[in-house]
């Protein structure tokens, strides 16, 4: 019995020693992790200056109080016409909100004039979004609703300063959607195609319009703004003023190019190096034949503004360059996740996207409209 009692005391003493050792080991491990985290350099490549919660706008949760209202909002397009003005075009699931006015989805605009700190809701009454183009003082919005299986297209003009929405056209979509289109909106004038007739239309005063001699332009022509059309004819780049009918030469090309296209709001001449379908390479030049960059599958979806490029395809990190991609700065996204590739950019200064915070049942959970400023290296 004495032997068993001594053995039990030894076992108890070993357990106490083990617990002390385990606590010290755990404390050391925790301290090591903390010191390691503190020693990691802080990512200062972007400043997230706004984190908008849709709850602040609606003051209610959705789906019988289960979720943040941001879960019933799907952002489809982001426009940033001014430094402090942000416009979101989104699908709102009306049926998810308390006391819905309709069971259908609705296209709404959310507008901010304080760089994303707060937003106003502007409903359109339409069911889905087709097209958005924002320039200077106005945004062109094309949305539609279904009527007996046919799309009824509506064209709206949104004032980027007063946030007023005005319907300017409505039509039944033709079987060939390319027969009736709007494009190249510059904030005032827009090219309207009605089957074979092209018109430059003043959207602010629709009594002002000009027939366009498109037969003289060829296949590729673009409205560069203020009623001026840029087109390529043989080896010449020319500019035609639709209002004055003045036609002038901009440049005589020294080289031969395969395509004349608008890329990222810039007119480009494209020379094919090779194109095997999935793999291709084009050299891109401006209309004065200054080389801009090489166009490949790897940079196809980059955002570009002058010499600035941003690669946002890997949503866990955002990398950007101020020298056409020769050198890059990488920002690792922390604290939140970017779930979809919907981004808006203002020049080379900041981006807007939706971030999702995972915080369990905390009010901090859910989607937020994020504004991130680029830090120049």
Using the CA coordinates, give the radius of gyration: 28 Å
Largest beta sheet, briefly? Answer: 5 strands, antiparallel
Computed structural class: mainly beta
Report mean pLDDT, rounded to a whole number: 87
User: Can you count the helices?
Assistant: 3
N/C terminus separation = 77 Å
Percent helix, as a range, is: 10-25%
| Morphology call | globular
Low-confidence stretches: 1-40
By oligomeric state, this entry counts as: single chain
Beta-strand fraction estimate:
over 45%
Strand segment count: 29
What features would you describe in this structure?
With 377 residues, the chain is mainly beta. It is built from 3 helices and 29 strands. β10 (180-183) and β11 (189-194) form a beta hairpin.
Topology:
Blueprint (H helix, E strand, L loop, with lengths): L1 H38 L6 E7 L2 H4 L14 E7 L6 E8 L11 E8 L7 E4 L4 E8 L2 E10 L2 E10 L5 E8 L7 E4 L5 E6 L2 E6 L6 E3 L2 H4 L3 E5 L2 E6 L2 E6 L5 E6 L6 E5 L2 E10 L4 E6 L5 E5 L7 E3 L2 E4 L5 E5 L7 E4 L4 E2 L5 E3 L3 E8 L8 E9 L3
